[in-house]
Amino acid sequence: MSKKIQAIRGMNDLLPEDSDLWTFVERTIADLFISYGYKNIRTPVVEKTDTFCRAIGQATDIVEKEMYSWNEANGDSLSLRPEGTAGCVRMMIEHNLPREGIQKVFYQGAMFRHERPQKGRYRQFHQAGLEVFGASDAKVDAELMMMTHSLWQKLGLTNVTLEINTLGSSEARKSFRDILVTYFSAHKNLLDEDSLRRLETNPLRILDSKNKDMQSLINGAPKLMEHLDDESEKHFEKFKTYLNALDIDFVINTRLVRGLDYYNRTVFEWTTQDLGAQGTICAGGRYDGLVEKMGGKPTTAVGLAIGLERLILLMEEQVIAIKTKQISIYIITPSDDAQLKSMQIASLLHDAIAEVIIYNDISLGSLKSQFKKADKAGADFALILGEEELSNGQVSIKPLKSQEPQQTLSLDKAIKYFKDYT
Ligand code: ATP
Ligand code: MG
Fold first, then answer.
1. Start-end of H helices in 353-395
2. C-alpha dihedral sign at 77, 82, 85, 87
3. CA-to-CA distance for 291 and 110, rounded, in angstroms?
4. Are 205 and 198 in contact (CB under 8 A)?
5. Are strands 327-332 and 356-360 parallel, antiparallel or unpaired?
6. Reduced to 3 states, what is the DSSP secondary structure of residue 218?
7. 188 and 49 in contact (C-beta within 8 Å)?
8. What is the distance, to the nearest Å, from the Cα of residue 206 to the centroid of all Cα atoms in its chain?
9. How far apart are the C-alpha atoms of 80 and 70, rounded to whole Å?
10. How far is the CA of 247 from the centre of ligand 1 (A)?
């Protein structure tokens, strides 16, 4: 026998047994975003490497060490997308979309980062993200919180915390940078290798170091919150006022700087204690300068991305049951004569009921084994096409999840019965 072929480490298959949960989550997200007026967009999985370097920033984990990049024969460097915002901004500029007014868009898809695989951290993972272009008021930042807050409720999730911070204007950040460099330079002996490098390239990022030995040094660092420009301070106050008015709880985390360079003003993360170290399920913020930096007209923007694998892990921790369709029916066909009829009936049921799953038995096994399969599929009803039923132009319905008795009806009445059930 030849050696078995395996998937690449950190890149996972979606197995049939997990399909219901994924489909439920992705549909719930898409339906919710659409209900707030967002339009679905798709951008290529591959872009020029420069698109990501310019957007995300050179001195970030992603660009420094996590991208899958290669050279084409003509010398172009291309990369698999590590996140969705860069491609989305590239698309907006290329198609002149911000010129048509405020743009609200969302995407779902695979992202690629060369990280050390562990629970909640993979090399191919999936994000659902949304972006708003051309709206600078804190009202839209709050709308993103309102939507995500509502999403956790729709999914049945609890124990998620909203952490917020503001990064101010780029000018305020620049002068704060000097204050921070002075502080950390005075404690160089306590910095790890990464942080020493960041002291030169991107000192703000030292604040989000996960190194335990550096936590007390970081806790004692000056706070950007205390060096804000007036406009950003007002913006942040307004953001908090909206959250309070919406009854959305939050905590201010002054160390929240986010792993990507493009943010200003509002930044936020939804986190949970239930997933161990990989506890951030959704993250984002404002990036008012990015469109211009990428070659477009100055356009304010704000967005977020949800890590779907982490969301699914949390669903598995917390949520007992989900229902993907309102009703599921298993058609039991004990004889050869029943096969044709079962196809016609399945077709009628699909036409008549929108929210239905129909399992039309294709094993052609014994009555007993077909009932077993119906149970295994988790069907609500068995629809039995026995010999007697067939000769009388009838079907039998057996509820599989309640003690109600089996009943025999005409096909029309059976369809009505199922429709009334949904
Ligand atoms: P982390 O600090 O966990 O590395 P990040 O700041 O790199 O996260 P973002 O770039 O903000 O993450 O991505 C948004 C969300 O996508 C994260 O909050 C997380 O839920 C998810 N995510 C990021 N990287 C991965 C990964 N390698 N595997 C699975 N999910 C991920
Ligand atoms: Mg990361």
1. 367-377, 387-391
2. positive
3. 23
4. yes
5. parallel
6. helix
7. no
8. 27
9. 9
10. 27
Atom 6 of ligand 1, residue of closest alpha carbon: 259
- Which residue's CA lies nearest to atom 17 of ligand 1? 307
**pLDDT tens digit sequence for 284-321:** 999 999 999 999 999 999 999 999 999 999 999 998 77
**pLDDT tens digits along 90-122:** 999 999 987 778 999 999 999 999 999 999 999
Write down the pTM of the prediction.
0.91
Q: Where are the alpha helices (DSSP H) in 319-404?
A: 337-352, 367-377, 387-391
Please give all residues whose beta carbon lies within 6 A of any atom in ligand 1, as ranges: 83, 113, 115, 120-122, 125, 127, 259, 278, 280-281, 283, 305, 307, 309-310
The CA distance from 163 to 143, in Å, is 15
Element (H, E) at 90: helix 85-94
- What are the strands, taking DSSP E only, across 152-294? 160-166, 251-252, 264-272, 280-286
Widest CA span of the chain, in angstroms?
Answer: 92
